[in-house]
Structures are given as C-alpha cells and as structure tokens.
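batch_manifest entry 22 of 60
target: Carbonic anhydrase
source organism: Sus scrofa
requested by: lab member K.T.
priority: normal
notes from requester: please return tokens only, no post-processing; we will run our own comparison against the previous entry in this batch. if the run fails, retry once and flag.
--- input ---
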Amino acid sequence: MATRFCCRREQAARFVSWGEAQVPARCLGADQDFKLKMVMLSRLRVILQASPCRALWRRFQIPRSMSARPCSLYTCTYKTRNRDLHPLWESADLVPAGERQSPINIRWRDSVYDPGLKPLTISYDPTTCLHVWNNGYSFLVEFEDSTDKSVIEGGPLEHNYRLKQFHFHWGAIDAWGSEHTVDSKCYPAELHLVHWNAVKFENFEDAAQEENGLAVIGVFLKLGKHHKEVQKLVDTLPSIKHKDTLVEFGSFDPSCLMPTCPDYWTYSGSLTTPPLSESVTWIIKKQPIEVAHDQLEQFRTLLFTSKGETEKRMVDNFRPLQPLMNRTVRSSFHHDYVLNMQAKPKPSTSQVTS
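--- output ---
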C-alpha cells in the first residue's frame, strides 16, 4: 500500500509543477502545455479517488500544525517546522482530490442565467476593521467577527455570512494577476472578501472546512483612474513590507471597493490557498473597479520574506486555473452572448423582388 501511494505521489509531482515561468502563460494566449497538465491532473484525481489509499491521500490536505497566530487565509497554517509553503504551488502534496477546485475560467457564453438568484445585500460596519497584516502570501485586512455587525446576505446564500477578512492577488506586471479569468481574459489584480456562515458554524476555522461554510466575493481590478479608497490601503503598505508585520487599521468600509453594477456570477468552489477546502460559494462581480498603475506598483513593493531573509518580492501570488469539471456557473443577469461579428443588413422592402 505504501509503495503504491508513493508511486502515485511521484506521478503527481511529474504532472503538477507551477514554476514561476509557467504561471503567467495562461494569460498570454492558448498554452497547450498548460491544457495538457489540466487533463492529466483531472485523470490523476480520478485514479486517486478510486484507489484503496484514498483516505491516506486526503490526510495530506489537512494542516499538520497551526501557527501561534491563526491565519484566516490558511497559507501560514499549511506547513511543518522544516518546510514552508512556496506561494506558487510547487509541492505535489497540494494536489487536491476534489472536483470543485478554484479558481476557474468563467466562460460568459456557458454561464446560465438563474432568475432565482436574489440581489446581494452588503452591510459592513467600518468600526469592525482591525488591522492590516502581511502574512507572507498577501496582505490581509482583518475584521472583528464575533457578532453580525459586518455581514452579507441574499444572492445565492441561504444565511447571513460574517466578514472575516479581505485580501488581494496580483501579478508581477499589469498583464496578469487575477485568479479567476473571464473568457480567458486576465485582470491585473483580484480582490477577495472572505465571509463565513455563523449560523451553521461556531467559528471561521470550522466553517472553512465544510460545504457552504464560506462565501467569497471576488472583484476584478483593472487599470484606470486613481482609486481614493484603495489609496488608504496603499498608504499602510510600507509599514508591513515584511512577512508577519502588522499595523492597526481602523474604521474602513470595504463596500467602497465594490463596483456599482450589482451583476455577478456564482459557482461552488474551494479556497485557493491551502488546505484548498471545497467550502466556498463564490460570488464573482461582473464589473471591475479601476485603480491606477502606481497603486498596483505599491502592492509589488511587499515581500514574501521576513526581516533578515533574502528579499523576495510579493508578486504572482495567484493560484493557477483549475478544471471546471461538472459544475455550472450561474449568472444573476440575463445575457445573450454576442459574437464579435458585424450583423448583415436586412434587405429593404424595395429590394425584395416578386
């Protein structure tokens, strides 16, 4: 049994390698090598799920140790004393066995309009904002979540979900950076607002492991005009340049980071950071918000590393795309997919011959 399991892990290591040079390739056009890896990864999951060592494989998805400070993004918890998790997913131990992994490429034409989807109601209390924290993977703005002061409801959700934190993903340059894509289009960055189901679960950590435990709002960032509210975050970044640094950040309302358009896509997925639990209802806003190039450049001044370590810039902190598998992406808005073709003019009545 152990020998067979090791062999399968070696196969996984050959199929999955998210090197720095490979990650951005998905945003630069059709990448046959990436597609092949996705197909092989999908087949490997099927093999592992059917194998006698399936339970043993799942053990490798669970954090073995917890840091002194719980990390609501989970990156800092998935590590042992002698091995730190690399942000670009180079370890074969991180290959998930599920079929609802995130992020995905949203195909506009294949999304299904669901008239039963309700508007999403957002109610955030600015006083619940606590601090900004560099956790070694992104910077998190965390909130006090012991009560229902900052919640979302409606949309695809059956219960109220409390805001835990929000964070961003971004690229080394403006050509890529978002985790999700739309018709294979990348955005320079993506905002994630992470909420948990306090009706069914007692705390965030339990909710993050179970189905319908989390709800994450995703907002794309595109280049454009200067964003006054994002600048408030940018101004704190020099204070948290290194990993594990934290600064107080009070009275901030994240709803100022939302686009004005209420339209969204939704699907069932997973955390995009370890332990990759399939506990997330994703709500991806259709309309991006605009930020200036120099504001994104300030994101890139952060470091993955602690003080005293060799500096490594915090860039390309996104997970590669995952297969859609059997899932359906629903939209809250009615749409007709229009091909990029010029319509032929209809003949006038005078042109019609008898």
